[in-house]
Amino acid sequence: MAKMRNQEIVDVLEEVWRSLADATEGLDAKEWATPTPCPGWDVKDNLSHLIGIERSIEGETPPEIELATTDHLRNPIGELNELWVEDRRARSGDEVRAEFIEVTGRRIATLRATSDEGFDAIGWSPVGQVPMSVFMEVRIMDSWIHEQDVRLALARPGGRFGAGEAVTISRADLALGVVVGKGAKAPEGASVALEVTGPLGGRRRIEVIDGRATSVPGDEATTTITLSEETYVRRFAGRIAAADAAAAPGTEIEGDSSLGAVVLEALSVMI
């Protein structure tokens, strides 16, 4: 997708957050406790996580809590996220939703007042030292994926095929070199084409040249993987297993099926 202007990034972030607030309006206690595709988290936990991230960006320190050992805590970032979530587990869903609306509203106001120089400033992000504008695109991706976690769990579809999903797909696309080269360890000269179907889809082709997996246009590919937008982003986010992605409606692997299977396995790269 085309590079967005800074305030366009804020527009999309606001749109995704409002959509998530809409998706969780009027829930009862059972609905708030519904498990979601995000491992270990129910509907309320997804909002608690987003609250915690935005409070962290504002400079707040996470609560000091001793966490139990669970399968879904696999790295320090996951453990940090869990502190904010665990701190809100005793609160009602409505309380958490109200806090989510308040915190995200405050964050949008802050971003609206941020200068272009502020958006250009380099700083920490989960994807390394990047301009704040890039970090906010990552926040769109994370927020949109959690919105879809919630909507799928509640059977309240929405938020599809808009700017939030477009940003998420573009972030997934940026990871394909790592997926094919480092993750799948494709050999020299091999090429992988991903045909993503849907309004925001298209063809991506990665080829290993001089030891580097690089985006290179071309018609031929060692393996071609066709999959839907939903399957693409859900596998990228680790919401479905590689076997389930391979069996999903619309998924096909042509050419070197072994390489295609390894690429699907490596595609789950989101922290």
Please describe what this structure looks like.
- The structure is a single chain.
- The protein folds into two domains: 6-170, Four Helix Bundle (Hemerythrin (Met), subunit A); 175-266, 2-Layer Sandwich (Nonspecific Lipid-transfer Protein, Chain A).
- The chain is built from twelve helices and seven strands.
- The strands form two sheets. Strands 5-4-3-6-7 form a five-stranded mixed β-sheet. Strands 1-2 form a two-stranded antiparallel sheet.
- The chain is globular.
- The protein has 271 residues and is α+β, with helices and mostly antiparallel strands.
- Helices cover 52% and strands 12% of the residues.
Question: Helices, strands, pairings?
Answer:
Layout: H1 6-23, H2 29-32, H3 43-57, H4 76-87, H5 93-112, H6 116-120, E1 122-123, E2 130-131, H7 132-154, H8 163-174, H9 176-183, E3 191-197, E4 202-209, E5 212-215, E6 223-228, H10 229-236, H11 242-247, E7 252-255, H12 257-266
Parallel strand pairs: 3-6
Antiparallel strand pairs: 1-2, 3-4, 4-5, 6-7
